[in-house]
């Protein structure tokens, strides 16, 4: 199992245009839809919003990780988006979020997929990992950072 | 060096659980605190805390947005927060936990039997997966029909065993409710909800149709189980593999899926699966009806022992499902044996805690009181806390008692028309045949269980 099975350059958006929480979730899900990863966009949006209602996925330190587990997801995938201006995501620490990881997995997923996603999540806690994502110049550089987790 | 153990968990179990775990570990490293974090995520439980870990820990941190059981942390200093708090500021959490430990603030964990049992039940439910989960979903949806059907039939016998043959009588009406309607729906509901569990809503139609066919062909609950699984997996496969152009996709759930899946399941049931399963069911039914005493005792022994073996786990449920399924074939003996055998483990343990106090801890003696109630209510899980504390001695004891109860119930030819309810269904007329002997079987098993516990369990040191 390799990181590039989850994410590729097409799933990376360096300049998110959204300015608020709802639209950034939709913008990220749109990336998934364009890449044929989900079958039912509305369903995925609904699930993502439901998850946010249970507790924000804006985990602070400028990171948000909306995620969806649904039958409307064809395969496990991660979309990455960056907003240099920052978006008010209702984060724990009330700061703006800059790094967005949308994680989608089907209802039934292999453990190894989930373990890799767990590994990605663990890395997000580290300052230098986040800083390198913030400083990366282009999609290619983001990919090489992610491939080294 | 101070040691802290922690549990992290979040609703989806994909990201937060692990971020919180990493944060805690990182912060602990910085603060020179020993830390072990158990993650309860979508992969299941990882890095599980052992009893040893918990014993050595100075404090416990629970960072979870789900319900994490406290039972095992009894008497520890516990700090409980939302999972996000651990990601956000793990350092202050650790300080908080150590402070609490310093002050000696221990959290009293309510260790009463009822909450332990319901905890254990929900844990098992969550752990169920694959075919076993699907089968149990089907069974749980079927049970209300069995209860309504069985009790209505029993009531109709109040007017005499053949009273229902009198057209227009109340007895006939009760029979129509119970036998012709509720019991007739049993197998279709079972099959429909097995398929539902596998393929979601599209599974229900083919599942129920397959179950109905199993019923009418005479393939009974075995046929129904097969129909349910077939319908579920076939529908799931169709869902994933039929690709319609986008503008026709609306037709999938309303036209394509129900028609195709029902057609496939229906034809399979009628031509391929129905006939052999009907043969098996007929064989089973006539064997059960014409069973010699020796075979009846043997069956009772096996079913009884199964009921006690894992107290509500898969083996117990296999015996239970088998017996409930047979109610649909109007065979009531195994149901009686199984319910009786499921009642004796908590009853026997409760009696033992009264008679042989020096063999149980104070906590167990306390737990003995609600165990009486669980026993008479047919909640076998009431024995779990005792069995968990001392499985090697408790499980053989309760299995012996249950096996004897099951065997006696079969030997006495007791029949039971209700699938659940413990002693509370027994006063309803005709629900149980041979009530006196049934009580005798239950009492005998209870005493045997108690006696076995007396032999196997050593006296506790003062």
TrEMBL record, chain A:
Cellular location(s): Cytoplasm
GO CC list: cytoplasm; membrane
Top-level taxon of the source organism: Bacteria
Classification via Gene3D superfamilies: Mannitol-specific EII, Chain A
SUPFAM superfamilies (UniProt xref): Phoshotransferase/anion transport protein
Listed GO biological process terms: phosphoenolpyruvate-dependent sugar phosphotransferase system
Pfam families the record matches: PTS_EIIA_2
PROSITE patterns to which the protein is assigned, alphabetical: PTS_EIIA_TYPE_2
Spans through the membrane: none
GO molecular function: protein-N(PI)-phosphohistidine-sugar phosphotransferase activity
Predominant localisation class: cytoplasm
Organism expressing this protein natively: Halanaerobium saccharolyticum
Annotated ranges, domain PTS EIIA type-2: 5-149
Name of this protein: PTS system D-fructose-specific IIA component (F1P-forming) (Frc family)
InterPro entries (UniProt xref): PTrfase/Anion_transptr, PTS_EIIA_type-2_dom, PTS_IIA_fruc, PTS_SugarTrans_NitroReg
UniProt keyword Transferase, yes or no: yes
Record keywords: Phosphoprotein, Phosphotransferase system, Sugar transport, Transferase, Transport
PANTHER family: PTS SYSTEM FRUCTOSE-LIKE EIIA COMPONENT, PTS SYSTEM FRUCTOSE-LIKE EIIA COMPONENT-RELATED
UniProtKB/TrEMBL annotation, chain B:
Keywords from the UniProt entry: Cell membrane, Kinase, Membrane, Phosphoprotein, Phosphotransferase system, Sugar transport, Transferase, Transmembrane, Transmembrane helix, Transport
Compartments, as annotated in UniProt: Cell inner membrane
Major site of localization recorded for this protein: membrane
UniProt region (Disordered), positions on chain: 105-129
Residues in PTS EIIC type-2 domain copies: 131-462
GO biological process assignments: phosphoenolpyruvate-dependent sugar phosphotransferase system
CDD domains cross-referenced by the UniProt entry: PTS_IIB_fructose
GO molecular function, one term: protein-N(PI)-phosphohistidine-fructose phosphotransferase system transporter activity
Gene3D superfamilies tied to this protein: 3.40.50.2300
Cellular component GO terms held in the UniProt record: plasma membrane
Membrane-topology annotation of the record: Multi-pass membrane protein
InterPro entries recorded: Bacterial_PTS_Sugar_Transport, PTS_EIIB-like_sf, PTS_EIIB_2, PTS_EIIB_2/3, PTS_EIIC, PTS_EIIC_2, PTS_IIB_fruc, PTS_IIC_fruc
Family matches, as Pfam families: PTS_EIIC, PTS_IIB
PTS EIIB type-2 domain segment(s): 2-99
Record field: transmembrane: 135-161, 181-199, 211-234, 254-273, 294-311, 331-356, 394-415, 435-456
Protein name per UniProt: PTS system D-fructose-specific IIB component (F1P-forming) (Frc family) /PTS system D-fructose-specific IIC component (F1P-forming) (Frc family)
Taxonomic lineage from the root: Bacteria, Bacillati, Bacillota, Clostridia, Halanaerobiales
């Amino acid at each position: 199992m390799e990181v590039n099975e989850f994410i590729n350059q097409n799933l990376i958006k360096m300049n998110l245009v959204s300015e608020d929480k709802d639209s950034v979730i939709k913008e990220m899900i749109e990336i998934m839809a364009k890449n044929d990863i989900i079958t039912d966009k509305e369903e995925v949006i609904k699930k993502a919003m439901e998850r946010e209602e249970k507790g924000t996925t804006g985990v602070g330190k400028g990171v948000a990780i909306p995620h969806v587990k649904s039958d409307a997801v064809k395969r496990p995938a991660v979309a990455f988006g960056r907003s240099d201006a920052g978006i008010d995501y209702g984060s724990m620490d009330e700061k703006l979020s800059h790094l967005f990881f949308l994680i989608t997995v089907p209802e039934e997923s292999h453990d190894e997929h989930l373990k890799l996603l767990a590994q990605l999540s663990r890395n997000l806690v580290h300052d230098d990992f986040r800083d390198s994502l913030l400083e990366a110049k282009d999609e290619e550089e983001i990919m090489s950072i992610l491939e080294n987790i | 060096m101070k040691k802290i153990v922690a549990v992290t968990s979040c609703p989806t179990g994909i990201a937060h659980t692990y971020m919180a775990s990493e944060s805690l570990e990182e912060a602990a490293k910085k603060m020179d605190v020993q830390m072990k974090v158990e993650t309860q995520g979508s992969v299941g439980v990882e890095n599980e805390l052992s009893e040893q870990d918990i014993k050595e820990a100075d404090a416990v941190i629970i960072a979870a947005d789900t319900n994490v059981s406290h039972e095992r942390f009894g008497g520890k200093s516990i700090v409980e927060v939302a999972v996000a708090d651990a990601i956000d500021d793990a350092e202050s959490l650790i300080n908080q936990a150590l402070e609490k430990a310093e002050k000696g603030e221990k959290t009293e964990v309510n260790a009463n039997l009822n909450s332990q049992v319901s905890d254990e039940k929900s844990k098992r439910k969550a752990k169920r997966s694959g075919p076993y989960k699907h089968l149990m979903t089907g069974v749980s949806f079927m049970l209300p029909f069995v209860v309504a059907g069985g009790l209505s039939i029993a009531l109709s016998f109040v007017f005499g065993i053949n009273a229902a043959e009198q057209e227009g009588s109340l007895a006939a009406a009760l029979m129509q409710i119970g036998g012709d309607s509720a019991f007739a729906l049993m197998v279709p509901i079972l099959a429909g909800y097995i398929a539902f569990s596998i393929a979601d809503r599209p599974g229900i139609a083919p599942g129920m149709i397959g179950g109905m066919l199993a019923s009418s062909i005479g393939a009974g609950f075995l046929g129904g189980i097969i129909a349910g699984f077939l319908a579920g997996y076939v529908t799931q496969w169709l869902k994933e593999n039929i690709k319609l152009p986008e503008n026709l996709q609306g037709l999938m759930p309303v036209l394509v899926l129900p028609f195709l899946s029902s057609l496939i399941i229906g034809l399979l049931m009628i031509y391929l699966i129905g006939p052999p399963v009907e043969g098996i069911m007929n064989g089973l039914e006539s064997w059960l009806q014409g069973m010699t005493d020796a075979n009846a005792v043997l069956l009772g022994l096996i079913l009884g022992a199964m009921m006690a073996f894992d107290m509500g786990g898969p083996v117990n449920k296999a015996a239970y499902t088998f017996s409930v399924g047979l109610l649909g074939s109007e065979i009531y003996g195994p149901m009686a044996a199984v319910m009786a055998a499921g009642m004796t483990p908590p009853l026997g343990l409760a009696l033992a805690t009264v008679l042989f106090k020096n063999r149980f801890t104070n906590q167990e003696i306390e737990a003995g009181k609600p165990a009486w109630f669980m026993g008479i209510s047919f909640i076998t899980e009431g024995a779990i806390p005792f069995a968990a504390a001392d499985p090697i001695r408790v499980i053989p004891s309760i299995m012996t008692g249950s096996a004897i109860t099951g065997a006696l119930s079969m030997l006495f030819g007791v029949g039971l028309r209700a699938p659940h309810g413990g002693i509370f269904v027994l006063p309803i007329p005709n629900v149980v045949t041979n009530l006196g002997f049934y009580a005798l079987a239950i009492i005998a098993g209870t005493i045997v269980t108690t006696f076995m516990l007396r032999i196997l369990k050593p006296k506790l040191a003062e």
